[in-house]
Design brief:
Blueprint (H helix, E strand, L loop, with lengths): L3 E9 L3 H8 L6 E8 L4 H6 L2 E5 L5 H7 L9 E7 H13 L3 H4 L11 E7 L3 H33 L4 E6 L4 E4 L1 H7 L3 H4 L4 H4 L7 H13 L3 E9 L2 E13 L5 E10 L1 H23 L3 E6 L5 E4 L1 H7 L4 H6 L11 H12 L7 E9 L5 E13 L2 E10 L1 H22 L4 E6 L4 E7 L14 E2 L1 H12 L3
């Protein structure tokens, strides 16, 4: 994926080696650019990624003193020298006498030192072999950089905590989320143990035990750990896997932790609310039943629904032949109830209807039913609410009879028609014929007393 453009500075007297190198193709992901000059050029030296210095006819030590290295450790130097020069240079590099002239601070980073010294003369085949080997080493270095970059980008942009430990529990590498959680920098964390990082007195025994289990079993282990931190107790779901050394032995562990502290708090709250809802569901007077659209399976039903339909248990209801509709529904109302349910087609549709059920003891209840389609796990179900409105129905019938009686009373040519509130002993007249006497005559406020008027009526009109 990466692209690496290399600028080669071919310095010194032109030679066949330079021509061979320029003819060789770059490896994948690489492009080459070449500059040439017989004498050191500060501008070209500064631009160069790789300097191939042909020392024929030059004073090797003197020319190296004139090179202007920037000390960033990114340049590579390949010296092409005859055997005599090679021996002289090797001694100078070995005792360090040359390094103090290469960089102003008197030293040179290891990765900025000459990558190689090629002893001339070399055949064309040997030149190709050496340059190709250099290319492959360079590609290995860039591939390793890319792999490291992939790792850094992946772990540092993850919201989860990620760490790498050696077998003694020392953190070798951590990601940004880990540092944010422990409120420390990578420099503070890497190379330290659990207690220092998490601001506690001792390493966590549970953590130590889980890592030992991972290394012993050589497999990924998942666990939930409660960690004491400086900011309080945190709950982590951790995935720990073994890391292997070059010889195949376990050298440490890699861990990924999801901070689920808040989620666990939410779970407890939801469980508590569900328990409350369950209590309400099982104790409310309104019946609730949820079942499949074909009526073959009841998801849930509360005691109120069973009682309203006339059953002691779900088993009794199913044994009595529940098929969308309980067998206790009055025969005349079954078709109406079925038609209401068939009207529901999509999630959220609902309908309300009245129907009756007859219990085994002959008692008939009037129900107000609400039916709604809901979806769960991609499937449609019926959710039904059953409300016993028998008392209201009886009251309605009573009120209807009273209204009919009142209408009938008003329709007959009675001399006097009154309505009394017996508790308050106050009444009003609907009809009053003054020619019939003053026994039930209303007072100035239009109201009459039941007790007083009846006493007057008995006194005047009832025979002893």
């Amino acid at each position: 994926m990466y692209h690496c453009h290399l600028h080669f500075y071919l310095m010194g007297h032109p030679c066949r080696a330079f021509e061979v190198i320029k003819e060789m193709p770059p490896l994948g992901c690489f492009t080459h650019e070449f500059s040439e000059g017989e004498k050191p050029d500060d501008a070209l030296t500064a631009r160069a990624d790789v300097i191939l210095l042909h020392l024929q006819g030059m004073d090797g030590k003197e020319i190296l003193r004139k090179l202007a290295f920037d000390g960033n450790g990114k340049k590579e130097l390949i010296l092409l020298a005859d055997k005599e020069q090679t021996e002289i240079l090797a001694e100078g590099f070995a005792d360090g006498s040359l390094w103090k002239h290469v960089l102003p601070d008197g030293g040179m980073p290891m990765d900025a030192r000459p990558f190689d010294i090629w002893t001339l003369p070399m055949s064309e085949g040997e030149i190709r072999f050496r340059f190709l080997r250099w290319q492959k080493e360079c590609k290995k270095d860039k591939d390793a950089w890319q792999t490291g970059h992939y790792l850094e980008a992946a772990i540092d942009n993850s919201p989860n905590l990620i760490w790498f430990k050696d077998k003694n529990g020392i953190h070798e590498k951590v990601n940004n989320s880990f540092c944010k959680t422990v409120n420390k920098t990578k420099q503070q964390v890497e190379g330290r143990g659990h207690a220092y990082i998490w601001d506690v007195e001792h390493d966590d025994p549970a953590c130590i035990e889980s890592e030992k289990e991972v290394m012993d079993k050589r497999e990924t282990c998942v666990s939930e750990e409660i960690i004491q931190t400086g900011a309080g107790i945190r709950t982590l779901t951790t995935y720990k896997s073994p890391l292997y050394d070059l010889d195949g032995s376990v050298m440490g562990t890699v861990g990924v932790a999801i901070d689920v502290t808040q989620e666990r708090a939410y779970e407890k709250e939801i469980i508590k609310k569900n328990e409350t809802l369950e209590k309400i569901f099982t104790t409310i007077d309104c019946g609730v039943i949820r079942h499949t659209v074909d009526g073959s399976h009841i998801l849930s039903i509360n005691k109120a629904a069973l009682k309203i339909m006339g059953y002691e248990s779900l088993e009794e209801l199913m044994a009595d032949g529940f098929d969308m509709i309980a067998n206790s529904v009055v025969e005349e109302d079954r078709e109406k109830l079925q038609d209401s349910m068939k009207k529901l087609e999509k999630e959220g549709d609902s309908v309300s209807t009245e129907y009756r059920v007859r219990h085994k003891n002959g008692e008939v209840l009037h129900l107000m039913g609400n039916i709604k389609l809901f979806k769960e796990n991609g499937k449609l179900y019926y959710q039904r609410f059953l409300l016993d409105c028998t008392a209201q129905k009886l009251q309605e019938k009573k009120n209807e009879r009273w209204q009919m009686e009142l209408v009938q009373a008003l329709g007959i040519d009675y001399s006097i028609v009154c309505f009394f509130d017996l508790d308050a002993d106050i009444g009003i007249t609907f009809r009053y014929n003054e020619g019939n006497g003053s026994v039930f005559a209303p007072g100035p406020d239009g109201k009459i007393s039941f007790k007083g008027s009846m006493e007057r009526y008995i006194r005047e009109f009832v025979h002893e």
